[in-house]
Amino acid sequence: RKGNVIITGASSGLGLATAKVLAETGKWHVTMACRDFLKAERAAKSAGMNKDSYDVMHLDLASLDSVRQFVDNFRNSGKPLDALVCNAAVYLPTAKEPTFTADGFELSVGVNHLGHYLLSRLMLEDLNKSDYPSRRLIIVGSITGNTNTVAGNVPPKADLGDLRGLAGGLTGLNTASMINGGDFDGAKAYKDSKVCNMLSMQEFHRRFHEETGITFASLYPGCIATTGLFREHIPLFRLLFPPFQKYITKGFVSEEEAGKRLAQVRQLPSPPPSSLSAAGADLYFSLSLLQVVGEPSLTKSGVYWSWNQNSASFENQLSEEASDPEKARRVWELSEKLVGLA
Ligand code: NDP
């Protein structure tokens, strides 16, 4: 049978490109879990996705009720779950004031971490029931949360501190809206949320890999300066960031190179790169994610994957904070309370 994969935030960027390529392998049915149903349907159509290869289900990660509703709806569809890809994210680098989810959490951590945390915890049961040979839970991380890298050292740096803000619910009322209890900073909140993503994946691995055999992994796919993620940034940044990536950090991936790299994915029988023209960068991104979802050699659990200049995958090192087991345990326990599981 076909594998069933859920991809959150599949209405644009990496999520959409990955949904399309996975669907085109003929080996996967994709559930696009999106907050804007119409936008996702339109995106799938204009990407040329075959109607039978996907469906769109409503999921707003900024509401815990919506997450629970999504899980019920997916279960009612009767499909088994073989892979869950937590990809959606918001990035609000220019916000002066925090905004909040329906449950009152600061939006970046609320959506990127807490919404995905609840979703992953609930859907672990579904992954566990599946008879698919390699079941995977994948979270998209980021180099920016990793302070052992050049990119991770651009201020404001990720820092979860003693987690006092998270313990207080990130409400911005009596407690701070930032995890470490500090003043709101949108760029930092995003990086902190990505550290939480990477910590949760490791904690999932420690708690559940042996018992369930599920692969838990996070990845950093490379910097893609052209996706929607940067839509909230100031115009000057949007103008300068792609050339900066291209000439200074050399992290930018061209469309041509992306096509070449895509062609290297062995498990894709006939990827026609020409039909995948859209943004080359998205392709490269989706290539990374694809390998982590479908590549038979990448089944190792508890790993943070990256790719080198030659498109070879390797197990990357996380920063001290993003690999601290004690912090991972505390983030897990505090998050569990906030989403109503404990
Ligand atoms: P995009 O902005 O293109 O995609 C983000 C997706 O998340 C969109 O589909 C968006 O939906 C969705 N989303 C946002 N808020 C919610 C919500 N409340 N509920 C459900 N879905 C939501 O960005 P990218 O494709 O670049 O980002 C994908 C992932 O890659 C993210 O996890 C990001 O952190 C990561 N990443 C990106 C890098 C880059 O260089 N671009 C670098 C490293 C990591 P909608 O279409 O409705 O807005």
Automatic annotation (TrEMBL):
It catalyses: chlorophyllide a + NADP(+) = protochlorophyllide a + NADPH + H(+). Its EC number is 1.3.1.33. One of its GO terms (biological process) is chlorophyll biosynthetic process. GO terms for cellular component: chloroplast. Phototransformation of protochlorophyllide (Pchlide) to chlorophyllide (Chlide). Coiled coil: none annotated. This is NADPH-protochlorophyllide oxidoreductase. It comes from the Eukaryota. Transmembrane segments: none annotated. The keyword Magnesium does not apply. Pathway: Porphyrin-containing compound metabolism; chlorophyll biosynthesis. Keywords: Chlorophyll biosynthesis, Chloroplast, NADP, Oxidoreductase, Photosynthesis, Plastid, Transit peptide. Belongs to the short-chain dehydrogenases/reductases (SDR) family. POR subfamily. It is an enzyme of class 1 (oxidoreductase).
